[in-house]
Amino acid sequence: xxxxxxxxxxxxxxxxxxxxxxxxxxxxxxxxxxxxxxxxxxxxxxxxxxxxxxxxxxxxxxxxxxxxxxxxxxxxxxxxxxxxxxxxxxxxxxxxxxxxxxxxxxxxxxxxxxxxxxxxxxxxxxxxxxxxxxxxxxxxxxxxxxxxxxxxxxxxxxxxxxxxxxxxxxxxxxxxxxxxxxxxxxxxxxxxxxxxxxxxxxxxxxxxxxxxxxxxxxxxxxxxxxxxxxxxxxxxxxxxxxxxxxxxxxxxxxxxxxxxxxxxxxxxxxxxxxxxxxxxxxxxxxxxxxxxxxxxxxxxxxxxxxxxxxxxxxxxxxxxxxxxxxxxxxxxxxxx
Length: 336
Known about the structure:
Blueprint lengths: L3 H10 L2 H5 L1 H10 L14 E5 L4 H12 L3 E6 L2 H15 L7 E2 L5 H14 L5 E4 L17 H21 L6 E6 L23 H22 L5 E6 L7 H6 L1 H7 L6 H13 L3 H4 L3 E4 L2 E2 L6 H6 L2 H15 L14
Parallel strand pairs: 1-2, 1-4, 2-3, 4-5, 5-6, 6-7
Antiparallel strand pairs: 7-8
């Protein structure tokens, strides 16, 4: 017999637009009979969400806090992050958690944030990497790194490496979850030119390269860390109506606004991966949209760029640029 839900999902995935809009979300939710993404109370679980002052990050933090988790918000702007923490507390009826202030593009700030988290908490259940932005103009950090790559690739990689001991110290595997984007489907795997130079810089292309690197690193982490200790997943939220989209892609938002997902809809799979103790803990290294695992390539050109040698080069590049101490390669038994 043909599984109707599988057949509809396949038809939605073929053209991009229906799959990524609220149409795809609504159809999959009904056909797959989704329950709440937080099926059990999350009391005593500690979850860190970066980039949680608005949009998908705020929606994720609020849903997790509402289910009982202790949610720590990491943001670079103190005033905005403090207001977001107060808002999450008010919306979820939870006691506020003092935010951690850190610009993830600045590696010294990342190290300081990791130290603060280790000092304050005996364990960490979930680390959600959501911070990021699509920049129209090329910017650099104090270390000279391109800001998009620094914030979405180097900083999250370093924070993950520093928090691995906390993530692996709980009664169940820790989780590292990365909010990626469908924009990465247009980009191949770049290493030597991961950071675009000023003469060639285009914000959308730089963003896509960073998101491709995120998804690749998600798989590389999963191949190197025993999944009984920590699991790794990346998420594609679909096309959601967020302040970031309104600022970076105003024409896109104007045209597609009636079809864009709400932030809650875009965050649903992230919340499910953070809270559900079933499939999200039984697998690692996945790339997800609407609670289903997806291929990381849609184009032959990007697939051809994704070679084992280039993946190793990416790992070595990020290790060198961050000074992180990554885990040893655990071999095929730890692969997704």
